[in-house]
């Protein structure tokens, strides 16, 4: 089974001041991802920890929206092998392997076993992968995007759990370091939530239709890049105005499910499936000529589609951030450590008892 990721037709992409090679699978490009993180910040409620809105922190969160794509420029194959599949999930390949999104494991490595077993059980669905195009050994995987988002949620919730203890018992420096870790986690995870809202990150038809094509959809190998940035740039969609349209963040239910799967993973799978349902409508828009930048006037339907997907991503990201903060119980292990540390310091500073005569 050959899974070919997206290649930009442009020689280089300017991302956050860094020149990246063109052979990268990108969604929304840097400015689009930056806008999504800004939308999410605007959607947070007033009671959310205010330090994330400090100008330096807000800018850091926005800048980190492009970090996961910067990692993809690495010449080191193990780094690319680890990072590349985190940006997508091709739902069709789950079906070809006999897997159901409603039952796959929320544990990354258990899923990897499930997927490998499914491919072995359905050899008729596999095609040969060209070794010359698979140097990083990623082409035979369906992708790990929902696991990546779920794992980042867990890390962020853990950071908030530690901050809640440090704000009570820690030093100013420890509190500052915990806040910096939270800013880092919020910014980087925003990239993957943004990727998921680009429908082409949820399908084997990620850069032009592949295989049977009765509807005669485009097979153009630049289609993904065109959606990410080409159309946005040529039509001059104003991404900076989108945060003003942010919808207030909602708390996601985190009740344990009967099937034992992680609740956040289930929210993320539902989110990805909703975007995957837009793949054919997106191809139909292209077929109908609505995505042509030289159309006069520019198609309002196409502009609305792009803007809506970025708002959807910002909404989901804000929901995840809010849920991570609200559901984070103060870290009991850290609390115990700090209590013992303070007790020991108090004992050392106590005056020695006077000797009796």
Structure description:
The protein has a two-stranded antiparallel sheet with strand order 1-2. It is globular. Helices cover 53% and strands 2% of the residues. It has 357 residues and is mainly alpha-helical. Helix 7 runs antiparallel to helix 8 (172-197). The chain has a single domain (28-333), classed as P1 Nuclease.
Briefly summarize what is shown.
With 357 residues, the protein is mostly helical.
Descriptors:
357 residues; mainly alpha; P1 Nuclease; two-stranded antiparallel sheet; 13 helices; 2 strands; globular; disordered N terminus
CATH architectural type: Orthogonal Bundle
User: In which order are the strands of the major sheet placed?
Assistant: 1-2
Specify the helix fraction band.
40-55%
**Helix and strand pattern:** EEHHHHHHHHHHHHH
Low-confidence stretches: 1-25
Shape: globular
Number of strands: 2
Q: What's the topology here?
A:
Elements lengths: L11 E4 L2 E4 L7 H15 L11 H9 L3 H5 L5 H7 L7 H6 L11 H14 L23 H25 L2 H26 L25 H13 L27 H14 L2 H9 L12 H27 L5 H18 L8
Antiparallel strand pairs: 1-2
